[in-house]
Design goal:
about 650 residues, alpha+beta, Arc Repressor Mutant, subunit A, Rossmann fold, Elongation Factor Tu (Ef-tu), domain 3, six-stranded mixed beta sheet, six-stranded antiparallel barrel, 33 strands, about 30% strand, disordered N terminus, EF-G-like_DII, translation initiation factor activity
Amino acid sequence: MPAAAKKPAAPPPKKSTLGGERRREGKIDVAAALEGEDERSRSMASVRRARERERRQQELQRLRSEGVKVVREVVVPEAITVQELANRMAARGGEVVKALFRMGVMATLTQTIDADTAELVVNEFGHRVKRVSESDVELGLEGAVDAEADLLPRPPVVTIMGHVDHGKTSLLDALRKTDVAAREAGGITQHIGAYQVTVEGGQKITFIDTPGHEAFTAMRARGASVTDMVVLVVAADDGVMPQTIEAIHHAKAAGVPLIVAVNKIDKPGVNLDRVRNELLQHEVVVESLGGDTQEIQVSATKAMNLEKLLEAIVLQAEVLDLRANPGRGAEGTVIESKLDKGRGAVATVLVQKGTLHQGDMVVVGAEWGRVRAMLDDKGRQLKEAGPSLPVEILGLSGVPAAGEPLTAVEDEGRAREISEFRQRKLRDKQAAAAGAARGTLADMMARIQAGEQKEVAVVVKADVQGSAEALGVTLAKLSRDEVKVRVLHSAVGQITESDIQLAKASNAIVVAFNVRATGQAREMAQRDGVDIRYYSIIYEVADDVEKLVRGKLAPIQREKFLGYAQILEVFEVKRLGNIAGCRVTEGVVRRGCGVRLLRDGVVIHQGELATLRRFKDDVKEVTNGYECGMSFANYDAIKVGDQIECYETETVAAV
């Protein structure tokens, strides 16, 4: 076996050699990886992703070939653009436009369609429809009803009402130990003020001071809507006056109790029984006459019986058992609003529920914002405001209308969404009103051109919302049948160039109440001849505009009788026609006057006197008893025995 022993050893298996090589080759360095020399440089995860993608594409192709569609739930609001609808259905915009075209609706991708049309399209594409209303954004805005255990006592909100100059603000001054009335132009309260005072027992009372002038009726009504009780101020010397009666009606409409404060009892010769009997005529029965309405006799200037008034308020508050939950999101009402040059939009808000904190996100009517700062009635900064506390808040996006509700929301997105929805609603409402007014405006212009109607157009700019509202009420009352007073625009803030442009285009005057024009606006007004009138007392506005109305009233044409003449003879003259030989039987006949021809007492012609002659001379007038010759313009059918009535038409100013 030596040969066999010499036989060379078999080489190792190729497979193992290759495997070893491959294993060694698998250990590559960075350079090799960058050169791309490795066959296994793709990771297994990458391969798996590619295979998964391929599988999904195959599945999608299979579904398409079988006609199987993915059914989605598509949310459809009241109005939606075609592109947005396509996005929600995961369809191509062009396909949606084609579907609309087949339905007879021509629309581009950017156009808006209504919910009914959108629903038809969604059904056409085989999806499910979920209809929602735009107003759903307001759902849950008002908090739930508070549990009885969460309610805590709160200060009463008291509105002071009464006739103008009966001492409302003076009474509040005496209670606050401040002098608000001295800062008011003409001693008349122009704005709503909200203040909180602390009485001796430690209880707090919130007062809302409403102006007494009748133009502020809407503001007084709004004051009553947020109040718990009304203090009716009646001057002992004047008694019940028109605004006193209105205040009683507001209090009854709001369903709030009344406390009568008979003011000015320090004046000599006052008759309290007369006041009580006048109140009785309006179903206000005071306790001294057996009723349940408290009556306190006070003097604001002498500070008499103020403690009794405060006691009566506290007692009434205990009877009402006023409570609120301070531990919830804030809700309240705007008492007043204005645009402050340095601070922006400022709103005086009465918190009614919950607690308002600095930094809270709030929605106020159609405006929104974060509460950057809060100030009380004395100008002190606050971090939080509980129920029944009036505060000024800063940080809103715009000036809200007085009377708008305030609600705290969780975040900026929600606040913005609600604000945008309300602004859209407001724009739609204004557009609808403008559309409705266009037809009437065209009619009005036609009547004006025909001399049947004229108008005084006014642009109102005021320092606060309440004043603007009051001026609108005052001006509306000045309209007559012949001449209308039209408020083109009413807003808060200084007069801008856009106000002047509006006034110029409409031939209007600008009424500025406690505000001034910007430099550019003033120059534009002077250049374009726009009349800006500045006021600080509401009576002066009413007086001036009434003078304008009277000036534009169509003058009255009044007929003045001159005399009678009797036709004695009729002469035919070439070139002149028939001439009447007459005798003046009464009054006087003047050349150029109006004449009526009477036959048997019936008017058969009315016109003008063409010629008046005495003998051969033209004369200006002929008096009673004298004879004259007359001819009539464009009329010849005169007879002997006809009577001529002469008159003049005079123009008198309307009153």
